[in-house]
Amino acid sequence: MGKSKKSRGSRAGAKKAAAQKQQQQQQQQQKEQQEKEQSAVDADPPKAEDSKQEPETQAPQAKETVEKGVEEQVSSQASAAASATEQSDESKNQATETSGEDGKEDTNDDKNTDADALGKNESVEDATPKDDSNDSTAADTTDPAAESATEGNAQDDETREQTRSKLDDALGNRPGREELAKDGVLGSKPGVADSLQATAQELDQKLRRSSLDQSLAQRPDQNALEEKGVLKKENVSNTLAQTAQDLKRQLSQDKLGDLLESRPDIDELKRRGMHSGLEVAPSLQDRRSSLERQIHADKVARNMETRPEASELERAGVLPEGSSEQGLAPGLARPKRDLEHQMRRDSVSRGLSSRPEPEELAAKGILPESSPLQDEQPTDNSRDENILRSRFAIALKGALHLEKLGLIDAQLKGILKNLIFDEDERIMAVVEVFETEHDVNDMLDGLLNVLRAHITGIMTAAE
């Protein structure tokens, strides 16, 4: 009898201890979960994406989250109560098997245990204590574990209410989008989505950093800045700074004096083309040169307006005949004429070199056997007369050409003709050169030189 009571007492104490331990674990889990929620509400700032929503739309979401957490806690408590009931059933079966000697007392104890488990389940599911006036027996047989669970549930409800009120206050006092952008929590880069503001800011920072690094890499060093006078050398004490400046000024003056002493004079500048040679102020030399160029340009324009036509130049012998009709430039007319003469001369030379002799022509019947060409052979005197006559004609044409060009007047032309008819050796030599080279300009220059030399000789003899 005593042993059965002791065993029942030990089993009941073990059940109570297990239920209390399980209840403490559940309370500890609930407290940890509440602390996590509270720390998340107090510490986490609102994200950029959540800031798009208004406080009125976020508060119900937070409440739904809290209610879901409460429902999960209640479901966990209900599962814990169910596990406690299963444990009590197992202990009841064990007590029934071991209490064969005093079945009646064991039955009463099992009934009390079942009542305790039932009261515990009801307290966990309802989370409120039953009314004492309705059932005094249930109040007398209430388990301390159930009372502690009820108190824990009440505390949990109070904690949840406090958490909900704090969450509502935090959502109500949450700053707006403009304030977050002003404080730097949200990006304020226009034309960029909120989810990309952080990336855009990082890119801007990288660009500014790279630009700054490039500028720092290209900046001149201190020595270069000191040489340019941007920075002053700080290696001199304050007491010697004025003396150092005076010395620098004196060195600059000495250097300038050396440059002034070694500069070239006006004659040297004139030889180098750096000085115009006129007593004009340097500030007016450029203006003077520009005016001179303008005067020359105006003069050239007037000469171009009054220049003769190509036909007039052809009649004057300046241009070859037909050059204007052929559309050749004046610079190409003379080479063209020389080439034509040379081609005709070469053609005549080839024809003369390949022509047959009179005997061959007579043998072929082209010429009669008694040809007058064979009888009339030119003499040396007649050949010399023909050459002299052709040279006279060339020299007279040259004199006429000089008169047309305006290089000599009528009186000088008469003197030149007298020299030609007198068979002057110098004029004959000029004509012979022309017959060889066929250069009209050289012949005209030679005739002028002969005329000048003849006039100079006359003036010398007169003196």
Question: If you had to describe this structure to a student in words, what would you say it looks like?
Answer:
It is built from 20 helices and no strands. It starts with a helix and ends with a helix. 77% of the residues lie in helices and 0% in strands. It is mainly α. The protein is elongated, with a radius of gyration of 67 Å. It has helices spanning 2-43, 55-98, 103-126, 136-140, 144-172, 177-183, 197-218, 222-228, 238-262, 266-272, 282-306, 310-316, 323-326, 330-354, 358-363, 372-375, 380-405, 410-421, 425-437, 440-462. Among the domains are: 2-44 and 56-171, no CATH class; 321-369, no CATH class; 384-463, no CATH class. InterPro entries: RPEL_repeat. Residues 212-221, 371-380 have a biased composition (Polar residues). Residues 32-55, 101-133, 160-182, 285-315, 335-348 have a biased composition (Basic and acidic residues). Residues 10-31, 72-86, 135-150 have a biased composition (Low complexity).
Question: Could you list some keywords that capture this structure?
Answer:
disordered N terminus; single chain; mainly alpha; elongated; 463 residues
